[in-house]
Amino acid sequence: MSALGARIARLIAAQGPISIAEYMTLALHDPRDGYYATRDPLGEGGDFITAPEVSQMFGELLGLWLAQAWHDQGKPARPRLIELGPGRGTLMRDALRATKLMPDFREQLEVVLVELSPVLRRAQEAMLQDCGVPVRWVESFGAVAADRPGFVIANEFFDALPIRQYVRQGRGWFERMVTADARSALSFALAPVPLPAMAVPASREDAPEGGVYEVCAAGEALAEQIAQAIAARGGAALIVDYGYDAPGFGETLQAMRRHAFADVLGEPGENDLTAHVDFTALGDAAVRGGASVCGPVEQGDLLLDLGIYPRSDALAARNPDMRDTLTAQIVRLCNPAQMGTLFKALAIVPKTAPTPPGF
Ligand code: SAH
Ligand 1 centroid to 87 CA: how many Å? Predict the structure, then answer.
């Protein structure tokens, strides 16, 4: 049992079972022992690898996508580039380098990074110290004023936001909670009282016995907030993550350590915890926020459409030794058996804006 696990067990002994959302928030962000608060989890030697860590082409193409969206909206003055959960800062470094192709975008730019982890924030500071554009940090998207057009990028951010799970039992839906026994071992248990019938979405009524559905209230609220800002001031958001676009009945909460699945309740604070992103729910939330939604499209299709092959040809022309590596990177990012299909992208743009490239 980890130090944080023992503390969570004491909390449960004192106040009763906690929701999975509360458990995820403690496990990921507890300031003393939380997973992100205490480490940089990325890379071969860490727990997982993300697309910008696979290839510079990922950040470059996404950076150009944002600059193109700015261009297509008539080049609004003083654009702001906002990244949610920037990890090591690799995506932003590559995106900013690519925006040198659009100097009038880059010259007026301010970069805002939304990051809770002090460890990753230091990594981002080091990565971006010579990027040539002003960069500042905030702890939540809500702390960024909507006074400039906001161009938002989020890769593998929404999967880290806390979810709740509901389980069908008989005629009712019961929330799955986290509880602890006398020896501080954590386990799942259903809440004793079902959800009120009116709280169950109509799309969930036909679920089989034992069916599970997940709700990410934080993700939906954030998508709505981003859409409101974009509707009011212009801008665009590109949300890339693994997830599904047809709500089903399955549980996707998972723990990862050293590139392998781990026990969700074992050693909180030591494993990454994520859930697949419900793109339908995010899209609906963004529409409620007053913006247009495009997609989701599959990551592989998006990158091919944005020109990952021409980009790799250009890089290989300068560096012929790199050709095989670049080809392997494209396979990893775009092949359906790897990241090409499970990962999807959703775009949020003002209602008046043209459909962005790749959608
Ligand atoms: N986008 C990066 C990193 C993904 S890991 C990449 O693609 O490599 C998730 C990132 O989100 C980390 O930087 C983590 O610290 C940050 N994060 C997770 N939950 C957060 C929250 N609620 N608020 C702010 N940042 C968060």
Answer: 6
pLDDT at res. 1: 76
Q: How far is the CA of 157 from the centre of ligand 1 (A)?
A: 5
Confidence of residue 206 (pLDDT cuts 50, 70, 90): confident
Q: Mean pLDDT in the chain?
A: 95
Cα 135 to ligand 1 centre (Å): 17
Structure tokens at 273: 């915890």
Beta bridge partners of 315: none
DSSP 337: T
Ligand 1 pocket, residues with Cβ under 6 angstroms: 36, 42, 50, 52-53, 85-87, 91, 114-117, 120, 155-157, 160
The mean-pLDDT minimum among 204-213, 221-230, 249-258 falls in 204-213
Q: Are 51 and 300 in contact (CB under 8 A)?
A: no
Residue 282 CA, distance from chain mean position: 11
Whether the CB-CB separation of 264 and 275 falls below 8 Å is answered with: no
Residue 202 pLDDT exceeds 80: no
Residue 305 phi, psi (nearest 5): -65, -35
* pTM over the 0.90 mark: yes
Q: What is the pLDDT of residues 64-79, one digit of tens each?
A: 999 999 999 999 999 9
Q: Which atom of ligand 1 is nearest to the CA of 156?
A: 4
Does residue 103 have a pLDDT over 90? Answer: yes
Give 188 Cα–ligand 1 centroid separation in angstroms.
26
Handedness of CA 112, 146, 25, 214 (dihedral sign): negative
Residue 350 has pLDDT above 80, yes or no: yes
The residue whose C-alpha atom lies closest to atom 21 belonging to ligand 1 is: 116
Residue nearest to atom 14 of ligand 1 (CA): 85
**Domains of the chain, each with CATH number or no CATH:** 3-16+164-214 (no CATH), 36-161+222-241+266-349 (3.40.50.150)
CA distance 274 to 167: 19
Q: Of 166, 164, 215, 163, which Cα lies nearest the Cα of 190?
A: 166
